[in-house]
Amino acid sequence: MAMTANERLRAVEDAVGQLRTELGAAGVALPSLRVDPVSSAGNEPYPLVDLGRCNLDTALRLVAVLHEVRR
User: Fold this and answer.
1) Which DSSP string do the residues of 30-70 spell out, in sequence order?
2) What is the pLDDT of residue 71?
3) In the prediction, which pLDDT does 2 show?
4) Residues near 30 by Cβ (< 8 Å), separated by ≥ 6?
5) Which residue(s) pair with 5 in the sheet?
6) Which of 32, 41, 43, 47 has a C-alpha 20 to 30 A away from that of 7?
């Protein structure tokens, strides 16, 4: 059974919340992290997550976290 538009939006909102929490626990904050409003208004199978913009310090923190996970 396919998800309704509301269920898809709720699922992507939950994913954004989980991503924000996990990134925060790793010391990374993406201030523009959100559900993409354009894709959530359309007929996409799932709305997109907009990771947004970040400053150099945040980008380097994210690189460090990803590098550590890969090791």
Assistant:
1) -TT-EE-HHHHHTT-SSPPEE-----HHHHHHHHHHHHHHH
2) 87
3) 77
4) 20, 23, 51, 52, 54, 58, 62
5) none
6) 32
Domain residue limits, the chain: 5-70
Answer yes or no: are the C-beta atoms of 33 and 52 closer than 8 Å.
yes
Sole residue written with tokens 């996409």: 44
Terminal-to-terminal C-alpha distance of the chain: 39
Residue found under tokens 């939006």: 9
Q: How far apart are CA 23 and CA 17, in angstroms?
A: 10
Task: Tell which residue, 32, 8, 6, has the closest CA to residue 19.
Answer: 32
